[in-house]
Amino acid sequence: MNSASVEPFSDVDKLHIDLKHSVEAMTDWQPAEGETSARHVLERIESVILGIVTSLSKDEAPVLLLPNRSSWTNVSFDSSVGLQMTSESSVTSVRCDCASSVTKFAQLLKILSVIYKLVQSDSFATKRDIFYNNTRLFGSQTSVDTIVDDISCLLKVPRRALHVLATSKGFISGDLCYMESDGTRISCSSSQAVAVSSNISGIRNIVSSAQFVLIVEKDATFQRLLDDDFCAKLSPCIMITGKGVPDLNSRLMVRKLWDTLHIPIFALVDADPHGIEIMSIYKYGSVAMSFEAHSLTVPSVMWLGLLPSDLQRLRVPQDVLLPLTKTDECKLASLLKRPYLSSQPQWKREMELMQQTQVKAEIQSLSAIAPDFLTNIYLPNKLRYKGWI
């Protein structure tokens, strides 16, 4: 048996206790699980429709005002929440008498009617179902995806309250059992990963003795850790991957685990600007979904690796390091301007080091040191010697 499986990770245990105490000390802390009533959602939709009917009765062209979900000026930063939309955000007008927005106006009304029926009947549909029920109107799946988020933001209700589900692309594995909304019992402890649920809010009866959660950026790395039996070799843990930029369900699942277990959550991403941004989305959220920050972000997420400083410390062979591209440089410059960097000086130093060295590296580059380096040496030592920031 690997020595890592029996030697306690005292710093991880201490971090677990500290996190638990910090949550208990937050008297205003509330889990993200609070449900929005069906009646509340229906009333919000009825209010929107009433506004349209009122405009028509006055012989005025109806206009829908959508908060602008793509502007940094509409976002503020709170270290305990992340990126959240301000109450006085700028809006985008969607008019029915304007050629450039009449199609979107029709799409919004159509999806509002679909949502109303779903909520009223307590039934669910996927975004894919909605698209294929009227492909000519929507044109693309992306249009449906965007409009569902716009409606969630417009109505000021969590997207899960709209009864519209998204197909999950993430996977999860480790010391975790739970029950799906339909009563199906799910065990994640087998050697095969389990697809992240498409209805996170319906999950209940979570049972786990895991000491930490490991977010893995890439599916290839996740599969490698599975093949190496990482969860069994190390202390009980849970691994999850969103297979790159995380989908909503992967983010909701990480938040669900945090709300339920209050155990340390670490991120394992490539030492490149793209990996850092992915980790930042889990931790602090994104501009596009800032209106739902309170139920999506997990500010306790910590950067375990791959750190730019690790590349020098471990003397990763030069031939597996990659030069930063112009796109990388622009992304890195953008990240260094993010408001959350002020509360993460160690992150900033790591990014500045990347900027100085002008190199990046994938997690897989550690195999150039030794084939089993990631599983048997790098991660155990990181966890044993408090190698996170």
UniProtKB/TrEMBL annotation:
This is DNA topoisomerase (ATP-hydrolyzing). Belongs to the TOP6A family. It catalyses: ATP-dependent breakage, passage and rejoining of double-stranded DNA. One of its GO terms (molecular function) is DNA binding. Residues 212-383 form the Topoisomerase 6 subunit A/Spo11 TOPRIM domain. Its EC number is 5.6.2.2. One of its GO terms (cellular component) is nuclear chromosome. The active site is at 132 (o-(5'-phospho-dna)-tyrosine intermediate). It is found in: Nucleus. The lineage of its organism: Eukaryota, Metazoa, Chordata, Craniata, Vertebrata.
